[in-house]
Amino acid sequence: MDTGHEVHVLSVKWSEDSPVPLLVTVTPRADACSRPAVLILLCSRCSATITSPCSSLILRTDAHLSPETIGAPNPEPPLVSSDLLAWALATYGGITSYSELQDPRSVQLHLGEDAYSPPECVPQEPFNAIQHLKTEVFFHGVKGCSRSDAQSTRAAHIVRLQSEPSSSITEVNLSVKCPRNSADDQMLILQSKANFTWSLSSECNIHLLVSGNYKMPLFPSLLPGQLLPDTEQDLIAQAFEKNYSVIASYSAIPASTHISLEIHGHETVETPVTTTPLVITQPPDLPHQVLLTLKPWKCTDETMEIVITRSHLEPIKDVVNITLRDISCQAEKNATHFMLKSPLSHCGTSLEGRGYANNELILSLAKDAVLRSVRVGFQCEIPRELFLRLFPTADFKAPQTELEINKEAFVQASMRWMDHPADLQLKECWLVAAGREPVLLVQGGEARGAGVAVLESPTGTHGRKVWRFRFTYTVPEGGHIPFSAILKCKAGLQNDTIFEKVLEVTVKDAWRPLNYHGLGLAAVLGITFGAFLIGALLTAGLWYIYSHTRPISKLQPVSSTAPASESSSTNHSIGSTQSTPCSTSSMA
């Protein structure tokens, strides 16, 4: 502290030769360049460019300097035999900062002293140097792998951010670059602490799976991520589960404020595409980015549903219609949403991949009286879970959640299992209602109990197992009738892997309409009688008032000699002025 000049030491080491020159920027603090400073850069096997607004900066380096470097064209190299730190201390009698850097791309060094630093310089890691040093480094710890039974070339890139508990970094800016016209078959998985924020800037058509929160230039509001595993094996397993068989890169990176990921693709021969002037078969980046960020599609084992909020399409502008690959499947639209729902067997949907439904969203854009189309391909994940539906009729259309007493109900349990659907078995199904004993409906694929029958499964369900049965829910006379019940089924494999699904239903009684939930028969009759009594009293009261306030003129006519027209007129006049009969009589 308080020496004649500052001394800053940078010791740079390389895992491999740097592809670009090292850029070092030295910036002063508030007192500008009033105090002399020395920069010692030990960087063998590298070329460097050193810039600073302080022309008095003294350089000692063994790096090959570019012509843009400040100071002397051939600065004196440090005479180091083994220990750079010991040499600097012996040469200058003390140092201001000492840093060892691995594979840096650029370094920004802030001049100035730190009164809270220890008097002895002992290099340690991790060390918080954020006050005086910022570096951008090449990350060479990238790993990759693929499944031995991989049936696709869909690739995943995984970035796992390793944050120390004491780290103050809560947000990272991540920029992603891809080759032009790269295929839409890649996923980027970003894992961090739950309270972390990813600020994404991407030029890629890439699917995202993010933990914590994230934001993009197109969407200023913060978007919630999802909970992701925090180990290498589990993250890779997550990618495999989503049918990404190649882990193109796995990077476990220390907490950083900025990360740049550049994805290189294999060179392919481009085939010219002939299109009409009004159709864009290679979609612009903007619709791709918006829709792949929103992911408005949701699939079950038999349907695909798409719901898009109109306000989220504002960056694209001029969207007048949306269809699927089969243009006859058009989205319904209102003032706030585009909505579309179709079976997976319709609208051009293909089920080629494991657990995914493939289709395209075709956006019709109208601008300056010209209509054009933009195609955005997407994949909708089909959850590997058991689905349970209740139907009122045997045609198994229009599922509902109402179960009527003493009437047949039809149940369908289904699940997609591309590996070996024949191995799936329906273990059991129960009907459970509060206040009543659980009713076993099906067990081991066979009917149990009265009124239950196992039905034939539909044909042509490739990769999907479907079970159907019917039953009648009865309640003994005078028994308790529940307002709701739970239909619970379990399916599983021979290796005891179990999938369970619960469907809540409302119990409907013909003598108890659903609109009167919560009111008993006595309450309904009481309300009806009360309304009748109030009406009768009001009618009697009005009749009493009317009978005691009739006009006197009706009982005592004023003149019997006047012509009929005059008598009528006189009676009307008296009736109108019944409060002053004496005055009227005097006038007569």
From TrEMBL:
Compositionally biased region (Low complexity): 559-570
Protein name per UniProt: Endoglin
Gene that specifies this protein: ENG
Keywords: Cell membrane, Disulfide bond, Glycoprotein, Membrane, Phosphoprotein, Signal, Transmembrane, Transmembrane helix
Biased composition (Polar residues): 571-588
GO biological process: atrial cardiac muscle tissue morphogenesis; atrioventricular canal morphogenesis; branching involved in blood vessel morphogenesis; cell migration involved in endocardial cushion formation; central nervous system vasculogenesis; dorsal aorta morphogenesis; epithelial to mesenchymal transition involved in endocardial cushion formation; heart looping
Subcellular location: Cell membrane
Gene3D superfamilies: Zona pellucida, ZP-N domain
GO molecular function annotation: BMP binding; coreceptor activity; galactose binding; glycosaminoglycan binding; protein homodimerization activity; signaling receptor activator activity; transforming growth factor beta binding; type I transforming growth factor beta receptor binding
InterPro entries for the chain: TGFBR3/Endoglin-like_N, ZP-N
Coiled coil (residue ranges): none
Domain TGFBR3/Endoglin-like N-terminal: 2-137, 143-263
Location of the region described as Disordered in the Swiss-Prot/TrEMBL record: 557-588
Domain ZP-N: 299-381
Transmembrane segments: 519-546
Topological type in the membrane: Single-pass type I membrane protein
GO cellular component terms given for this protein: endothelial microparticle; external side of plasma membrane; nuclear body; receptor complex
A matching Pfam family: ZP-N
